[in-house]
Amino acid sequence: MESSKQRSFSECNFLIVGTVRNCEKTIINEVNRLNDIFKKANKASWLIVESDSVDGTKESLKNLKLKLPYFDFISLGRLADNYPERARRIAFCRDVYVKEIRSRLEYSDVNYVVVADLDGMCSDLTYKSVLTCWAKSNWTACFANQPKGYYDLWALRHDYWNPRDPFITFKKLHNLGINAAKAYKTAVIDKILKIDIASTWVPVRSAFGGLGIYKYEAFIKSDYSVKGEYPDKTCEHVTFNKKLGKSISDCNLYINPSLVNINRSGHVFQLKLKYFLLKFFGYSLFKKLKHFKLK
């Protein structure tokens, strides 16, 4: 396939992919919003991988397929029995669309693959914010920003900001005898930065934040699989981006501060709520509250 470096947004072909589970309440609005944005390109196709839904997600996907051109989805049924660990299950689903990207003839003309969360995480995305990605041409992938607080620390790897899994760091610090609330604040809360939309692009080793735009070749060079037993609670985006960095010599991954998918994520509130529970109720009681289970 020809290089897409010199192509403008309107000349490019996009494939929008994602994994969904129990997204009946958000899927139609999210798909329509992104479809309105990317239909300004030369072509926008869709491939959604669904599993383990117990609501009307599959029916919503069927309706979308009837209404939208180039929209497709794959339903994998119940995977939780074979893959009880959520992170492993999501990685499995993502590798399904990787295989489809590599094998389907209709995707051979794709220039960019857009990986999107469709559970409300793209509610503030606009055409203008997406277009800012074309201010640069030397990127392999660029990821979204949440200016009221960057939440996706699990997928983020940055040498100074967040060099390793912050939730593992929290547990390691706590195991050293550090107060749980203090350890959580150091490992997690203090890393929830507010990145101004006018800031320069942030080079990273990995990120996601609910939206990532990759050049097509990334899905030829990388995938979400790991050799041997899947590491406990491993973020699939870290796996993909790490393998991508090893496969492409000039791999450049960025957070684009102007690519705002949601101004204020509810995930930030959840992280701060966990800190509140640790601070005022202690770790023992916190562990019993399964609804707020730490990653």
How would you briefly describe this protein structure?
The chain is of the alpha/beta class and 295 residues long. It has helices spanning 27-38, 57-67, 86-103, 127-131, 166-175, 180-187, 218-221, 236-247, 266-288; strands at residues 13-20, 43-50, 71-75, 112-116, 141-145, 202-204, 211-215, 253-260. Helix 2 (57-67) links the parallel strand 2 and strand 3 (71-75).
- Counted up, domains total 2
Unreliable spans: none
Q: Tell me the total number of β-strands.
A: 8
Q: Which architecture of the largest domain per CATH?
A: Alpha-Beta Complex
User: Could you tell me the mean pLDDT?
Assistant: 93
Provide the spatial order of strands within the biggest beta sheet. Answer: 3-2-1-4-7-5-8-6
Structural class: alpha/beta
Radius of gyration over all CA atoms, rounded: 19 Å
CATH class identity of the largest domain? Alpha Beta
End-to-end separation in angstroms reads: 40 Å
CATH topology of the largest domain: Spore Coat Polysaccharide Biosynthesis Protein SpsA, Chain A
Q: Please identify which CATH superfamily of the largest domain we are dealing with.
A: Spore Coat Polysaccharide Biosynthesis Protein SpsA, Chain A
Major β-sheet annotation: 8 strands, mixed
Count of alpha and pi helical runs: 9
- What percentage of amino acids are in beta strands? 15-25%
* SSE pattern, N- to C-terminal: EHEHEHEHEHHEEHHEH
- Name the helicity range: 25-40%
Shape: globular
